[in-house]
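Fold sample X.
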Amino acid sequence: MKLSYDKEDIYSKLDEKKFKKVDEFTANYINFLNKAKTEYLCVEEFTKILDKNKFVDINTKSKLEVGDRVYFVNKEKSIFIAVIGKDNLQNGVNIIGAHIDSPRLDLKPMPMYENKGICLLKTQFYGGIKKYQWMSIPLAMYGVVYNEKGEKIKIAIGDEDIEPCFTIADLLPHLAKDQMKANANEFIDPEKMSILFGNIKDKEAKENKVKENVLKILNKKYGIKEIDFARSEISFVPSFKAKYVGIDSSLIGGYGQDDRVCAYSTVQAMLEVLKEEKEIKRTMVAMLVDKEEIGSIGNTSMSTEAFDLFINKIIAKSGKKDVDKLELYYNSKMLSADVSTGVDPVFEEVSDVQNGNILGCGVALEKYTGSGGKYNASDANAKYVSQVMSIFEKNNVAFQLGTLGKIGKGGGGTIAYILANKGVDVIDCGTPVLAMHSPFEITSKFDVYMTYEAYRTFFKS
């Protein structure tokens, strides 16, 4: 009997049949990444998937029976999903929670201005980014506008080959002597991160000729005016495609893998359980939420009571008037499905490698997050850690035990603490990522598949 613990790579244990499954799953995942670059688009894509699999809006159901499949869309930017099991709700449910927002560049409320014959848009960065990584790369424009009539207008420009893209011009090195003296946090002034938006002048305009021409183009294409920017949520994201990385196609590169890799795996895991099981024992719940990257604040975040509203609807429509929601939470089990840091072989000095996540060795299971002395951490208790590990071990799910780097080098958190505060047993469980929060994040396709396998086995437990 071997008593010591060593991480093992997944590839060496895969047979040809399982390897094919990995490739099929990750090819579909890459396709999803290229379609769902904002939280709005994520909700749209997931709703399409759910509708095809006989899920319905919970508001259309007057009564819920065992086996019913329902979802609840919250303000178009988050979605809660459930499959009703035969066990008493009072005994708790199995929850997997992920977030679908990612770092990006949003527009300020009134963003448009003209300077030196160029029309530009002022941005406000969203989430934690290294600002220099967003300079001089091709960007796509996505968003929604609600005009004065309350009509919703969708905007999508920059990802199709026939469309123009956008960018922020960085200062050329020949003139960047003073810029290069500043530290990394300061040498890109966020107020100078303006999108290049147009250069042709309107011959009839008396002033701001380029701006007027751009506004005419927007009005013709979308029927909007400058004031409508204040009625919009418009973001700029990388316009390049997600794709396999490496000569062996072992890695996946793409924007927004934090945390859409876990969100996608959660939905696919739930659908697979429905194919495998004739009857669902314990109610399955998925929450795919917004605003995690800026502190989980707001009515589409995990902090909103909209999730409580969803649970209340499940209890009421199931006819279980005697179910205490607080006791339901107390008896529930959850995986906080968020990505974790992978040990970067080039910068391994910031990682405690013994407690780090190695790409290709499985889904990351993290007892606690936070920083320093576990500050702002959600710290799972030993009994629950053991329960989750046992589920994975019995089902041959490759997992590794990790932390978010060396003490004092940084840290981070997830939505885990929010459900933990309700009494739910929670542990963080997600895909290791390199270059997290960059425009092109990197995962192992084997870890992505094993994330899906972890969620599938958890839902069935």
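Fold sample Y, listed below.
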Amino acid sequence: MKYRKLHALLFLFILSNTLFGQTKSIGLPEIRNYTRSEYKGGTQNWAIDQDKNGNLYFANNNGLFQFDGITWTKYFLPVIPDVRCLKIDPSGNIFVGGYDEFGYFKANENGELKYHSISKLIKRMPNEKIDNIWKIHLHNNEVYFQSFKKTYIFKNNALKTLNAPNRFQFSFQINGELYFQDVKLGILKYKNGKLYPQKETMSLGNTEIWGIFDMPEKKLLIATLDNGLFLYDNQKLTPWNTDANVFIKKNSCLGGAEIKDNHIVFNTILNGIIICDKNGKIIQHINQKKDFKTTLYFPHLLTKIVIFG
């Protein structure tokens, strides 16, 4: 994992569904930059999710942050406050993971969020650590907490584990399927409790995969940190020879998100974000020079573009 120091925080709020329904090359979305003095948290946000009431939640270096559009509220994990991932299930449980800890926040009868540890169910040797939990997935009525060494699977107040063949990097959920990156074997598909290496992906084991996206004809688009974008069709891995790939290879990629009308947002390290269609044509480029003059820096990982109605 490569870490980069960040000096400020950008929450990228796209304030209109219509905007991305009519993604365009001119005109810019309204962007509000919340400074640390406003939200009083750490410089890095690792994940974003939204509940059914419209509240936004951020996995932040200094805890779980809730934003209702006016007020920021901070919640902590036991011992170490750092939250690296979050996922909200349909019932409103806010699953979170950090270093040596994972569990969920749930509202009590007064509407206050209270933390419930799941990691306490693990039988550990003295001084044994869980490591960071990097990704959470809701899959087949189970909750998956992925660390580098293991994935912990929670259901009915019980845990089981899925061990990494060598070492997991990240994991992704695409069309109801789970995929894991192993640092030696490449991409692994999870099915019925087992991991199946995907043909021709071993070459991706030594690079960081930060995003996997659904593509037409049952293909996958794979976004790597330093080696660009690749198309995968279950048999063959090929570079995605498009304008988007040229841009990503020059500026490095930290993942992104799919948005309306078959478009993808890619977050880069060096030059803001781009929006492209699934033919790889760049529709829009947004960076700190093009949006507004206030100095800003993008989050370590743009997990989701948050769209308000």
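Sample Y note: The CA atoms of residues 219 and 233 lie 5 Å apart.
Also: Confidence is low (pLDDT under 50) at residues 1-22, 292-309.
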